[in-house]
Amino acid sequence: MSRPTVARIHLDNLRHNFRLARERAAPSRTIAVVKADGYGHGIGRVARALAAETDLYAVACLEEAIALREAGLTQPVLLLQGVHEARDLGVCEAQNFTVVVHDPQQLAWLESGKARPQIWLKVNTGMNRLGFAPGDLETTRDRLAQVGVAVTGAMTHFACADDEHSESTARQTEVFDQATAGLGAITRSVANSAAHFRSGQALFDRTRPGIMLYGGSPMLGCHGPALGLRAVMTLESRLIATRELAPGDAVGYGETWRACRPTRMGMVCIGYGDGYPRHAVNGTPMWIRGTRVPLIGRVSMDMLAVDLSDVPGAAVGDTVELWGENIPVDEVAVCAGTISYELLTGVTQRVPRIEAGNQ
Ligand SMILES: Cc1ncc(COP(=O)(O)O)c(C=O)c1O
Which residues does the entry assign to the active site, renumbered to this chain (predicted)? Predict the structure, then answer.
């Protein structure tokens, strides 16, 4: 393939990050969250790389769970949003997919149907996205028991675990603890990646790390490496042109950047059509020949411009790291007014994923 824009996937780093999550979670056990195509890294690839490390995966929906079976994974899978159609419950039972039930409609499908998959109940402890009210949990469990459906787990999701100063997480934890206390010996799960880094946080039986597995920081104002995480994706391209600019020359659509000194600039073969964020501001860093260099001008669909003035030797063909080991994806995300989750899951299918070590 001749286009030089690729996402290199470092599976050793994925395993390193998973082990870190597992150590931080112990004695709780971890679930590998591999939804959204393994946060953009390739769901089959990341699941296989973690197959010897985890005994349970979590995905958003049935299609993703089936993708895991098609990739040869046999472990149980947790469907975090449950099913969207009654008939999917039978597939879940047959495939050993554990179904989260968060809504009366899903409850009614179980009551009126014959399928008996494993069920976790979702509790709304304050995020107000999905889940039963804490006070409805035991009656929901009883209704399911009457039709022979066993509830084997309960979960909730935190709204502000990334914010060390927020008190919401402690409040949500307390609500969850009380709401599930009467459910007997079931598996309880609350923790996203951020919860692994909160001191004193109760992690219950199972944690659900996502972004930290891929090297992104789950904590506000902090980059992954500062937490001991390693970048799993290196987004990389090459310089395809260089040019000398005179003071006053503008670059790119809208002429949003103008040279104020003689400037050597380069064009990099990557743009928003590859998932690089169009909203990245002037100055967003990238890495060429061991030096950080700034983005200049607006990101185009297939290319973007960089100021090479500090790298006089830079030449067409040089490798450019957009994010990865040297440029934390979290830093690019801040420059684009977003989060690492959106950048990683937004790398488009035009960009081949290449496992590091496999050219
Ligand atoms: C229900 C649920 N659990 C766990 C996760 C993993 O969260 P994070 O990627 O912040 O670790 C997510 C991610 O959105 C989620 O929706």
Answer: 35 (proton acceptor), 253 (proton acceptor)
Which residues form the pocket of ligand 1, taking CB atoms under 6 Å from any ligand atom? 33, 80, 157, 192-194, 208-212, 218
Q: Residue ranges per domain, the chain?
A: 11-219, 233-355
pLDDT digit string, tens, across residues 280-298: 999 999 999 999 999 999 9
Task: Using DSSP, state whether 152 is helix, strand or coil.
Answer: strand
Is pLDDT above 90 for 358? no
* Ligand-binding site membership of 129 (annotated): yes
SS3 of 222, please?
coil
Fold of the domain spanning 11-219: TIM Barrel (3.20.20)
The one-letter code for the residue type at 40 is G
**Ligand 1: which of 28, 157, 172 to mutate, judged by most atoms within 8 Å of the beta carbon?**
157
pLDDT tier at 152, thresholds 50, 70, 90: very high
| Helix (H), strand (E) at residue 49 | helix 43-49
**For residue 250, how many C-alpha atoms fall within 13 Å in the half-sphere facing its CB?**
7
Assigned CATH topology for domain 233-355: Lyase, Ornithine Decarboxylase; Chain A, domain 1 (2.40.37)
